[in-house]
Design goal:
Subcellular location: Membrane
Radius of gyration: 23 Å
Shape: globular
Organism: Oncorhynchus kisutch (Coho salmon)
Number of strands: 5
Strand content: under 5%
Order of helices and strands: EHEHHHHHHHHHHHHHHHHEEHHHE
Number of helices: 20
InterPro entries: FLVCR1-2_SLC49-like, MFS, MFS_trans_sf
GO cellular component, one term: membrane
Structural class: mainly alpha
Largest sheet: 3 strands, antiparallel
Distance between the termini: 17 Å
Protein name: Solute carrier family 49 member 3
């Protein structure tokens, strides 16, 4: 790259030379971080946000969408469910692609699938198509967008590992990961607003297709490399050092990783159930849909705020385990509180507070847990270790939703219900208690049984001539201060 030194920050690392030659040490005496990393992160955030907007385009305006396309509400719901159906089988291929073919190919392919799906959705509702063909073509476009989701949602951990120094990795992961719920929030606000103003689904699909096309152009033209010419850290040089299948086998034999896989996957499932069933749970007790939407918005907004604070804290302290255990415990308490308060009438303030706390403590865990999955499984590829946890969360989400729906019981009388006729007589008291119990049980298992060393940070410390003993109570902050001097922009 021309004038590359003008686009990077250089790290001069003072090392203690061991008695035997160390090939990694010889290669990594100088680390560089390039300003281009912020552009790639910016494009990934836009792509992640756009993809989640396309996912939930129709959910907030389901009635109008069904009427416009001449289909039932169940068919409209499948426009959202298709994301989950596609994500589970394709996730394994996505982890292989990220760790084998690289970051650039994965991101560019994801941006093209996202753009083509958005454009196809818009084309399907133009006047040239007969009414009977509208929904199948929209579903085709939605499927293309669903194909892009794993390519996008698995990327933050890989991007943070390859382009960012160790004291910025958790923050970069947090920023990229939280752009997904931000897109959900945008769709929840703007879909009803656009349809309410124009009363036209075609305008809605056009407005959502424009940013998808712009992001595709930015990704294709602007992202030129999968990794920087000079790595930002010692672990970046050896990223994905384990072959894909061997990495899978290593993960299955890693006790700490399997505990994280099951327990945090359960946490993802609980949050999916909360987001999916919130309106149905609250309407039985007389809470209107707009208030349920407000609680969902508070859940996301406070979650993004919490993730921002926790990401910065973990980047400075490296206390991944402590932060995850504390926040999972507080999140479980918030889940218990929601399961109780949601079954009471006229508790709007309490419900709004509980939903805000649930998001603040729960959402903030996600990027930190993804980084922790890499720390406890290194040198397995970042996409593989983080991707399997996402797959676990998706599988458990399907199980939890089916279980909770199956536990609902008909109510003899529901005079205060604001639900539609099909949901008015269902009681969610038992399912809510079961959800709280599952959340609490897996949280206790994680707090009690999860212990690991920070393998990636340990490997980086060894590469600069010192071998620290890293446990849950130790960090590498002092190590960084002793061995790294930043010498200007």
């Amino acid at each position: 790259m021309e004038n590359e030194d003008n686009l990077s920050d250089e790290f001069r690392v003072h090392v203690v030379i061991p008695s035997k030659p160390n090939p990694i040490l010889e290669k990594l005496i100088v680390f560089k971080v390039y300003k281009r990393r912020w552009f790639i992160l910016f494009v990934l955030c836009l792509l992640n946000c756009s993809n989640s907007m396309l996912w939930l385009t129709f959910a907030p305006v389901a009635d109008q969408s069904a009427q416009f396309m001449g289909v039932t509400l169940d068919q409209i719901n499948w426009l959202s469910i298709i994301y989950m159906v596609v994500a589970i089988p394709l996730s394994f291929g996505t982890t292989w692609m990220l760790d084998t073919l690289g970051l650039r190919i994965t991101l560019v392919l994801g941006s093209w699938l996202n753009m083509l799906g958005a454009v196809l959705r818009f084309v399907s509702v133009l006047g040239s198509l007969v009414s009977a063909a509208k929904f199948p073509v929209v579903m085709g476009g939605q499927t293309l967008c669903a194909l892009a989701q794993p390519l996008v949602i698995f990327t933050p951990t890989k991007l943070a590992a390859l382009w960012f120094p160790e004291h910025q990795r958790a923050t970069a992961n947090m920023i990229a990961s939280m752009s997904n719920p931000l897109g959900i929030l945008v769709a929840s606000i703007f879909s009803p607003m656009i349809v309410g103003t124009t009363n036209n689904i075609s305008s809605l699909l056009f407005i959502y297709a424009v940013p998808a096309a712009i992001i595709c152009f930015l990704a294709t033209v602007g992202i030129r490399d999968s990794s920087p010419p000079t790595p930002p850290s010692a672990s970046a040089e050896s990223s994905t050092s384990e072959p894909f299948l061997e990495g899978i086998m290593l993960l299955l034999r890693n006790k700490a990783y399997m505990i994280l896989l099951l327990c945090f996957g359960s946490g993802i499932a609980v949050f999916t159930c909360f987001s999916t069933l919130l309106e149905q749970i609250m309407c039985v007790r007389g809470y209107p849909n707009d208030f349920a939407g407000l609680c969902g918005g508070l859940f996301i907004v406070f979650g993004i705020v919490g993730a921002g604070f926790l990401g910065l804290y973990v980047d400075k302290t490296k206390k991944f385990i402590e932060a995850t255990k504390v926040n999972m415990s507080l999140s479980a308490l918030a889940c218990i509180a929601f399961s109780v308060v949601s079954q009471m009438r006229n508790q709007r303030i309490a419900l709004a507070v509980v939903c805000s706390l649930f998001g603040f403590f729960g959402f903030s865990i996600y990027p930190v847990a993804m980084e922790l999955s890499v720390e406890c499984s290194y040198p397995v590829g970042e996409a593989t270790s983080a991707g399997l946890i996402f797959i676990s969360g998706q599988i458990q989400s399907v199980i939890y939703i089916l279980l909770l729906q199956g536990l609902t019981k008909p109510m003899a009388d529901s005079p205060f219900s604001t639900c539609s006729a099909g949901d008015a007589s269902l009681s969610w008291r038992v399912p809510m208690l079961v959800m709280a119990g599952l959340c609490s049980a897996f949280t206790c298992c994680f707090v009690i049984f999860f212990h690991t060393e920070y393998r990636r940070l340990d490997a980086e410390a060894q590469a600069i001539g010192k071998k620290p003993t890293l446990t849950a109570c130790q960090t590498t902050s002092s190590l960084k201060k002793k061995h790294t001097v930043i010498s200007g922009l």
